[in-house]
Amino acid sequence: MRFRIYRYQPDRDARPFMQDYDVRLEPSDRKVLDALERLRAQDDSLAYRRSCREGVCGSDAMNINGRNALACITPLEGLREPVTLAPLPSFPVIRDLVVDMTQFFAHYHQIRPYLINDQPPPERERLQSPEDRDKLNGLYECILCACCSSFCPSQWWNPKEFIGPAGLLQAERFIVDSRDRATAERLAFLDDVYRLYRCRTIMNCTEVCPKGLSPARAIEQIKIQQLRRAS
Amino acid sequence: MTLLSGQRAFILQRVSALLLLAYVAGAALRLALGPPPGFAQWQAWIAHPLGAALLLLLAAALLAHAWVGLRDVVLDYVRPLAVRLAVLALAAAGLLLLGLWTTLIVMSHAL
């Protein structure tokens, strides 16, 4: 199977280039990551991140034939050849397919991704009704792979200021949590021209999320709750 | 609300869009039902206080909508602060002038 892969080693290459590979696949090779592993056996200078190889860790997010996806759960079958692999768009490249996620995680920390509750903790855990727990569905599953944020034009335009779909989905996850007591502060923090309102409902985020989540929907929910609070 | 509230502009954009939508629907209905109005009819419509008020409301919605849209484009594409402020000021001045001009025309007919 033919591959065309983005190569860049800052200390060696003056500029990035695309390298063509032809890889012999075994019958057991089904996903893009399997092919990458074969490729690395051929050329051990190729760098990429991977860990769990089953779509849970979010390490191997990359651009596959123009679409952000996780290499480990993207089937090789049906991919147009040569399969073009590139690092996540708009993220600074460290080497080959490995990108710098510093800004991405800075946004994540900005939304305070933890429960804030200053009431004295109960004897056992803080309980939640099944209905309240259901509100977290579609939000808690995010693995922070950055497929969405890297594919969001609003994020390309304002990478530092706009929190981006992944961060905002996480923000909504804590806003709707019945055990959290900082809802008002969270909503007030997001009522900002840049942090939340740079979203233009382009919905690339929902389109590419490998876990089938909808950051666009989460962003809409945040806006609705801000509106309720304001009125 | 804070100075850099995103919600204010967001609401302004939505509400003005609804007003414009209602006006376009009304205008389309009017054109579908009868022959297009002539100049005299337009003048008569604006001379009526209700017509003048409606037209001014429409102009305000249009200008507000244009302002939020232009501001969004500038926030996305114009990065240097000085250029950004200049472009925003120019856009604001242009829109205000348009608004003033529209008001003058409507008022000169309504009064």
Layout of SSEs?
The complex is a heterodimer of chains A (231) and B (111).
Chain A: E1 2-7, E2 17-22, H1 32-42, E3 61-64, E4 67-70, E5 83-86, E6 93-95, E7 98-99, H2 102-110, H3 130-134, H4 147-150, H5 153-157, H6 164-175, H7 183-190, H8 204-208, H9 215-230
Parallel strand pairs in A: 1-5
Antiparallel strand pairs in A: 1-2, 3-4, 3-5, 6-7
Helix pairs in contact in A: 2-6, 6-9, 7-9
Chain B: H1 7-33, H2 39-47, H3 49-77, H4 81-110
Report on this structure.
The complex is a heterodimer of chains A (231) and B (111). Helix content of chain A is 32%, strand content 13%. Chain A is built from 9 helices and 7 strands; from the N terminus they run E-E-H-E-E-E-E-E-H-H-H-H-H-H-H-H. Chain A has helices at residues 32-42, 102-110, 130-134, 147-150, 153-157, 164-175, 183-190, 204-208, 215-230, and strands at 2-7, 17-22, 61-64, 67-70, 83-86, 93-95, 98-99. In chain A, helix 2 (102-110) runs parallel beside helix 6. The termini of chain A are far apart. With 111 residues, chain B is mainly alpha-helical. Chain B is built from 4 helices and no strands. Chain B has helices at 7-33, 39-47, 49-77, 81-110. The longest helix of chain B has 30 residues, at 81-110. The radius of gyration of chain B is 17 Å and the shape is elongated. The mean pLDDT of chain B is 90. The chains are: A alpha+beta (231), B mainly alpha (111).
Give a brief rundown of this model.
Chain A is built from nine helices and seven strands; from the N terminus they run ββαβββββαααααααα. With 231 residues, chain A is of the alpha+beta class.
